[in-house]
Amino acid sequence: MTPVSAPTGDADLPDIVVILADDLGHADLSCYGATAFSTPALDALAARGLRFTDAHAASAVCTPSRYALLTGRHPWRSPLRSAVLGGTDGALIAEDVPTLAGTLRERGYLTAAIGKWHLGLDWQLRDGTRRRIAPEAGFRPSMEADGWDVDFTEPFENGPLERGFDHFVGISGSLDMPPYCILSGDRAETVPTEEKTPRVTSQRPGPAAPGWVDADVDPRFAREAVDWLRRTTPVGPQDPPRFLYLATAAPHRPCLPPEEHRGRSGIGPRADAILMIDDIVDRVEAALENSSRPCLVVFASDNGAPTCYPEDGALEDHLPNGALRGQKADVYDGGHRVPLIVSGDGLPARVDERLVSLLDLFPSLLAHVEAIAEAQRAPRRPGERAVLDLDGAADLLRPSSGPSRVVGATAFDGSLVLMREKETACFSTGSGGFSEPVGVPTRTDGEEGQFYDRAADPRQSTDLWEAAGARRREMVAQFIDETGYGDLP
């Protein structure tokens, strides 16, 4: 349970910036082992703060990972139990679910979401109805929908402005799904009236704004982020702190960096896009320099990198997930193990080897803010504090020791992965995602699956499922006890 406070004018509350890259692998930065190119801004950020070596997204794919990050809840608590939303699917975060942005806004923060949303919007349809997601589990997304049934002249409902953000500029889904248009506030900035011609094999056709250029999207997000930070810069204790959630479209496909970044890496467009992200981080940090408040910057990825698209860059030159087994969408570490850097506001510079989850960000940031606020005000009156029921641990920003925790993640097909410091249990006999074997039935009855020794076998090459029955059952029991997860054995 994490406390929530009423707004105050606490002078030492930090500006908080969370930058979330899309499909960036665990080894895609030079501070995480990349050698084919360098990421100096992110390397410097890591050198000044906490660099986590065993951080995991709550899912190996976009939508459920982002749901967990912004709500502090396991993705299987939402109606979406597998896959990702399409660009015209309804809003996934229910109205009564607290968000990180909304909770910080209650603490007096100005809040902005810029970039990729991919958590659904309740669009107005041409037939006069509105697209919504029913709260029951088992919702099936429309990833291949072309979007022509949406009335883009009308505002959408239950978007970022209704989920805790004061300001929003972004896109509804990934750059490979319609609609291809910038959203501002609660509507399309320019109504998409043209048919999009796909640039790569995985890009879907659908409505596009006139003059739409894929390569212009992340530069636009960078400008919007910098402009918002400069426009809202606090100059004294009377000015509120800010929370910026900046979600880049890159390096998710299509990897089409703008002209000034093309060819910079020398190994392909995906690496060029990563260098663009490094530049964006540098620009955002520069925009924070004049703030009167301390600044806390978080950088992470929503899941692992895909390695099944050779046109993005030759894998002999660079392995996005390093030596980890698997890729985006998989139950294996390559699917959900991600870079995580947290820097600023007095945090020490160190490498943190703890097993952590991006679920931990919400409760940890909130606990950090609460600790600062508590130090500056009188004790609360009885009944003044509410509580939030969050799934993550609140100790990400400070050293901790205690009983070994169980961290959960999900694959593209919904398969559950449970991890402890020295072991991983995958409740799937296949990859659950993009790697072979694909499409193998998922089992959650305990009879089949995969079990790996994380300490002795980091590449997950030796399956110990049969021999590890007792350890597996212990992990499951602990996870169910901690989370209330359903019908696992």
Automatic annotation (TrEMBL):
UniProt keyword list: Calcium, Hydrolase, Metal-binding
Protein name (Swiss-Prot/TrEMBL): Arylsulfatase
The Sulfatase N-terminal domain, residue ranges: 14-369
InterPro entries recorded: Alkaline_phosphatase_core_sf, Sulfatase, Sulfatase_CS, Sulfatase_N
One example GO MF annotation: arylsulfatase activity
Keyword RNA-binding found: no
Keyword Calcium listed: yes
Compositional bias of kind Basic and acidic residues: 189-198
Family: Belongs to the sulfatase family.
Superkingdom of this protein's organism: Bacteria
Residue ranges of the region described as Disordered: 189-214
Gene3D superfamilies listed in its UniProt record: 3.30.1120.10, Alkaline Phosphatase, subunit A
